[in-house]
Every structure is written in C-alpha cells, then in structure tokens.
C-alpha cells in the first residue's frame, strides 16, 4: 500500500504509510512544525542523518534540502503531522507583537527537537481535523497556526531568531555546499537559492569554481560516488541509485557505462 499525504486545512498536512516508504527529495521553502504520531522518520540533510522518533516534536527550518525514509511502527502504521509556518503569517505575528530581530540566526541547517508537553498536546488537539470529525474554518486555521507559534516561543524563546528572520539567504561557500548536497536531485534553481545566489550568478560562480557547468559536474560527481560504492563498499546500484540523484536504474546503468566503459558488474 502506497504512502498517502493529505492536506487537512490550508497549512496542515497528514502523512500516513503502512510499509517502509522512501520520500522524495524536497526543497523546504517555509518553516514547518511536525509531530511523529507513530513510526519514525529518517531525515537526510547534506551529510547528516537525523531520526525523528515516535512522539517527537520537530521544527524544520526553511530553505534547505531534505530526503526522508518513513518507517511504520510495530503496529504497522506510520503517521506524521506537519503545519507550515509561512512567512506571511510570521510577518503579521511579528508586527502585531512588535518583534524585531537585530541579530540573525547563525546556527547550522538542522532539525530542532523540543519534547514539550504543551506542543505534544497541541498536536493531539488536531486529531479531530485529521479524522474529519470537525470542520475547519479559515479563522480557526489561522488561530491554530498562531497557537503553534506561541507554543514554540514558550518552549524556547531563542526560536524567535529563526522564525522572524526574514532576510534572504546569504551567499555561502558554494564548493562546500555542493560537495555536501550533490546527491539531491532538485532543480538547479533550488541550489542557487540555497547558496544565496540568482540562477545566473550561481551558474557563473559554479563554472568558475568547478571548471564545469552544474549539470555536467553533478553527473560526474554522482557517478564517481557510485563507482566508489560499488568497488569499495560492495553495494548494488539498486540499493543506492535514487540516493545519488538518478531518476531510474536504466539511466544510471547507461550513464555509468558511458563514463567508465564498464558495466557495474565488471568493476
């Protein structure tokens, strides 16, 4: 049975699965707050892996790449609730509450966990909407999002430097970023935004640093990683081709043979 993802109201999403499911690579444009109802989520960000266990509350920062694998619980069900904290709502909240951020957040692109009872009970209060036993009006939807913001700030006041930082991403080290994130199969425009560049600026800087256009470099880098995994880690292409950004196995085999003049079995 395939995993399902359902929009309950404007910014609340319910995900459910009954077997292990590999999620798609995603560019996260807005902050979101999530709760692992059952099972667990393995989240991959760059070179790091984080496990979101059952009953964990998690705040995921905007403007980053993430890949997930969903594992059902022993009872056979995976459930995850997420509520988007969009920039428009956060700007309005900051204006109404006279919140200004003078020092931008300088921490890493990571997941924040806050096992707070109030946040746990908040997500449990969303159950009637997930079960469709209660209708959601636009006003109620707005109130629930604001409640989430209030509870986050109550659990950790330092979260305000994340939630209310409305600046554009700063230009970051392109070489370091791409060597950590080349496995993600996302549009070049997403890479550009995440490194604080326009698309044209990204392509220009990329070619200057790597002496190759982005698409060519990504293909070569992924194939080099594949060669290493096959020869030295004895892994099978079927087990990693998606994680290396290839859309299908036949495309991977063709590209590998084209670059190395060998089949994967001859390595």
UniProtKB/TrEMBL annotation:
<dbReference type="InterPro" id="IPR050204">
    <property type="entry name" value="AraC_XylS_family_regulators"/>
</dbReference>
<feature type="domain" description="HTH araC/xylS-type">
    <location>
        <begin position="172"/>
        <end position="267"/>
    </location>
</feature>
<keyword id="KW-0804">Transcription</keyword>
<dbReference type="InterPro" id="IPR054015">
    <property type="entry name" value="ExsA-like_N"/>
</dbReference>
<protein>
    <submittedName>
        <fullName>AraC-like DNA-binding protein</fullName>
    </submittedName>
</protein>
<dbReference type="GO" id="GO:0043565">
    <property type="term" value="F:sequence-specific DNA binding"/>
</dbReference>
<dbReference type="InterPro" id="IPR018060">
    <property type="entry name" value="HTH_AraC"/>
</dbReference>
<keyword id="KW-0238">DNA-binding</keyword>
<keyword id="KW-0805">Transcription regulation</keyword>
<dbReference type="InterPro" id="IPR009057">
    <property type="entry name" value="Homeodomain-like_sf"/>
</dbReference>
<dbReference type="GO" id="GO:0003700">
    <property type="term" value="F:DNA-binding transcription factor activity"/>
</dbReference>
<dbReference type="Pfam" id="PF12833">
    <property type="entry name" value="HTH_18"/>
</dbReference>
<dbReference type="Pfam" id="PF22200">
    <property type="entry name" value="ExsA_N"/>
</dbReference>
